[in-house]
């Protein structure tokens, strides 16, 4: 699962992709209308940046889906700039005359509304992920606004906590490293941890500290916490993998790597490697490859009238996707399918990863 | 006392403060006093603080900030500012991991990678110095530019992801120990020793102080401003490079944001130690104390179990208190 905070961070900082994004925008503007044949819609992916691994994999998934149905695919990059993100989408709508399918990770929560409204008036089909205002609902924009997908931060925080407790044998003290205090992902994941703690009275939370999503801060914090609690620390819960790897290096400096299990969220490669060596107990990922491909697939199937969004149940319109948990039991398989090669996916299994409707 | 009064006109308030000669001497040691009081208070509240294992951890956490702050001290003594810390550090860390054994390419240059990393960041420093003196751009803007160039370059080279450092010898900088302390601590101390020698025993060190004290006077006494400035920024780049290598060795990986927040930490440490942002006052000894204050405070707040939600507030108060104590504020002609 991605943390939105660190993603927007990457987008802001990278200048190279700003140029790439700008030239992509120019390229879109320069394309003649007739390039798009009537009938077959254009698949459009709108994401924040290509400089972070999360969105890079997202794009790979989108391209894999486009290749599987033999359609043209365009990637728009907002570079963390909401105006640019929306303007690029409107330009694409104009060029395609509305005959397009959009899978968007809106840069910011309010952006979803103008994007959806523009798609509605042009007749395009749109799927949004992660960010939308609470009062914006797909059911109010039938049939154009097909679905909205999120991943449940509370469930993720709870799920990794449970794996950690199990690895520790059900009792002992843990330390927890949280993300940037004000972000939704940080708040939700901590809530999940609290729920898991409430259900496991033999686990004691020694201290909760904030490392702002960063491995460097987690490194210093963890070594200080080692002083305060010493051998009482039997496990480390980190709200993302980057902080988890910082904690891991602090443990390694004390000769404790592999002896004190760590859990994190995101499924970054370093963490997956650490699961392989037994230094991480678990990491989970929202599977950006699936997000990139399935968002388009849901939108395309609705666009081609293979199903009518208006008649779909609420949990197909606004839903939490299933996260993929990577533990020592499945890490070799995950590695083989996702890191050594491109994953293969059944793109027609539209609702296979629905875990429930989004909490109001 | 009378002669001082005659030399320059002062307001009543200012002469009141400067007449207090004792207070002035005391001020020079104010940061040290703050550090000692801080240590005593934390040790009383939690005796674990003075346990050797913790002192080693404090030293280890101080290693990277100390090395960085050594470079920053010279720039601030010069009356300039170097914002390129994060850019230079991330370039050094990026060059290191991409040339040493790593999980992204087949390079394996060992210690040559370390040399290349430090050289890269030194060149960035020299370039900032060159830009300022040749194009007459203020250090604030020139180094801001170099910061973004460096950061953009490392994001590009690393492709936005984290690359792991797998050279065991370089990892040993953080993982193996000599006399109980990780090698990184010894390297930081060596950097400190080098900085001491440069400041007190070389011509460039004296020239930096002279320029910081008064650029026009320094120029009239025949100091080559341009040369000193370029060398000082190159020197800073060298220290940032060493810090980048240490940070990558500690974390066992490098990503473009490895240096996030380091600029603020370095400037804070230098200023809290009593070096004036206006230049010409303070030095590397002050900076050592400043780094220790910041590190001990961070360690102490964890030991005392202070809520993460108010730790930043405490840090802010600490900075204001230390700076207020360490300089003769009422004697300043301009506050901006």
Automatic annotation (TrEMBL), chain A:
It comes from the Bacteria. GO terms for cellular component: cell envelope. GO terms for molecular function: carbohydrate binding. Keywords: Signal. PANTHER family: D-ALLOSE-BINDING PERIPLASMIC PROTEIN-RELATED (PTHR46847:SF1). It is found in: Cell envelope. Belongs to the bacterial solute-binding protein 2 family. Pfam families: Peripla_BP_4. Transmembrane segments: none annotated. This is Sugar ABC transporter substrate-binding protein. Gene3D superfamilies: 3.40.50.2300. Residues 46-301 form the Periplasmic binding protein domain.
